[in-house]
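help with this.
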Amino acid sequence: MTQPVEQGLELLPFYCPIEPALHPAVADIETRAVAWLDRMALPGVSRKRLLGTRSAEFFCRFVPQGVTHNVLAATLWVYWGFAFDDTRCDTGALASSPGRFLPEATRVQHALETPGGPGLDDPYALALHDIGARFRGCATPTQVRRFTEAHRRWLLGVAWQVANRAGDHMPGLDEYLRLRLGTCGGAPTMAMLEIGLGAEVPSAEMDSPRVRALTDCASLVAALDNDLHSYRKERLLGQTEQNVVTVLLHESPHSLEQAVHAAVCLRDRLMSLFLRLSHRVRRGGSAPLRSYVDCLGHGIRGNIDWALRVPRYQGLGTPGWSERPLDPRPDPLPYSTVSWWWDELRE
């Protein structure tokens, strides 16, 4: 059984020795994105709530030196993703029905991938089709393919989460880490980094196990940060059945404070790995790869800075920053989902 929430619970300081950054055109990107949202009129989510996601700020922190037009296209997907997540993934008729969610996921994925887009009448499919067209207009075919494959990975992960919810299944920690890599939306978000930068990373680099490990590590650090940010809010809404804190509470007889401490230790060991592995990847990498790696780091830091300001997580307080990891051990975590990432530190 999960433990009751203590309303006074405070977040522990974040270990993230990466400087903050923000795209200089963030205000203009937000204005243009809001105009697009008003035209799309996505149902089921209020305009105030959608604008409150501060999606322009979110992605502009990830790609502070990106091409403005390209960053705008990516920002539209972030707004779309928050709306789709709120209305089709976390709540609503599809959120606990795999049989209904999967056809919907297939429809929107088809709308993203198909240039013609005939017969689209769902506002979410139409909006995603428009985003796909924008990507095809500003990105290379390889970048578009990488994004669509990452998008499919996200939807598949959400389908797994929906199935767990429908079956009242609480995953163990290793299973949860594998699940969270899909559900967090990190894959499509990170796939948009090189689109935002306007520079394609060579396939020999991007498809290598080392860069794949680094990318997933960045995504998982940000996902666990979001779990820690959102735990109290989700508890009040009854949505914590799949959160790293709840998984730890379910798996071992932790107190809430012990579970949060264990979650931060896990997260900090991944953060330390990211720093070491990013240094390893940058050495000898192409200029596009080095810029991509920089943006992965900006993404981890930017996700924290954004979460501390966004209305979605307001009222959680300011945890501050830590100069060192809560758990400084350099050895691999004992979970098969992530343990192989440490192998990529080898020369």
Q: What stands out?
A: The radius of gyration is 19 Å. Residues 1-7 have pLDDT under 50 and may be disordered. The chain has 15 helices and two strands.
